[in-house]
## 1
Amino acid sequence: DCYCVIDSLLRTDTNLPEYSFDAIIDKGLLDSIICGQNGAVDVKVYMIEVERLLADTGVFILVSHGNPDERLHFLEQYDIDEQYYTPWEVEVQALAKPLALEAEELDVEDPANLYFIYICQKRAEMVTKKKIKENKIKLEKKKKKPKKMKAPNL
């Protein structure tokens, strides 16, 4: 019943709790980030934060100028061993841009005349798989930490 406007999720210090949003809508932010000097890396950081903030059954809706060939590789990472694993399924819808003039005709076969809407719906089994993997990594890190030894009393 509430919403939050965030200027950018391009950092991991948003101080927002994990899994706190049922939906995140992006209209043009990813497109802007990708145009930056470190675009591909920054988009991956952004996607990690989006995924962190979405509830286990949440949906990420991206409205973009980028066609699926340009965007899906950021949204679909299904290898659990990859850092940027995405626990959602993506549906793509194309929407014709509005006409600038009444007499204008747009070729809807030309991607330049379309907006693309990417609907990324988290899936419980994929979320569970990711959490299991993260817990294994945490346990391995704990095992590798050297134990602190107390100096003997003399």
Note: Strands lie at 21-27, 54-64, 88-96, 114-122.
## 2
Amino acid sequence: GGDTLGSNLITGNDSTFSGTSSNWVNFEENSTTAVLSYDGEKLIVTIDGHTSDDYGGAKLEVTSSITAGKTYQVQWDMWRGTFPDVDNWRVQLGNTTVVVASSIPTTRTTYTVYITTTNTNDLFIYNSDCDPTDDGTFFIDNVSLKLVNGNTGTLS
């Protein structure tokens, strides 16, 4: 048998954004701003980049739900609205960062990553290369965070 996944640790509007609010908050660095809004179907992240290579996106507090040293599956849908086609799309969980894509499309796409945490820091989904011309929207939906049960190995 293979590894099994635990239940989704992110529920309700924090996962499906079917309401008009959630516990997600803006994640921004320096003078880049990120504004979160909702349309009842997805999380809308509006970025206004101001200086080179700043971060902009969204974060969710999950510190009470995760354990350092464990491996988790993070899965979500993400796609661009008016945000330009730039690189450095990342997800971070428990202080471990994974570069997800060099570019994201304008059509809804599902991303899945496995992260072994080093601490119990929050979940972040963001772009790490927001420049002064990088203004616009991108979308997040159907977020899940599941513990990988069993022994996880490393392939080389």
Note: The chain has one helix and eleven strands.
## 3
Amino acid sequence: LYCSYFLVQTIVICMKTVELLGGNSSDVFVNITDIDSYVSKVSSSEKAEKEIGLVIEKVIEFREKTIDASSDMVQKAKRIIKEQYTQQNLMIANVAAEIGVSPNHLSCIFKQKTGKGFAKYLTELRIEKARVVEKYRIYKCRDFRKSGLQQSKLF
């Protein structure tokens, strides 16, 4: 009885965890359509322990896939930003649309992975590029706009 209770609690917590990570628990736990009938098939504490391990493994696998997908998304966003940083109208909505995700989702994941918000990352990149231009005197002062910055007084 105690093992069944523990198994049910583990399944419920794992399903909620998958949902919090942005997944669909029915996609991750395809063999658990009805928790009661699933648990009723577990006849011993050894089998319950094995099932608990399998349920937790599924959450870990899902989390690893989510981390990989998030890292890929941020890498794509960084690449797009580096290619388009000189465009004055570059916004997170543009980058998100190009990747195929919502701006809010990209904003959250980007900040989690980089430690910086989109605007701060873009501004720092523009300043870095403008400093390179200034260091090597590649352009005249009026050409700092080519770095994506409007005001050369930021230096």
Note: The radius of gyration is 24 Å.
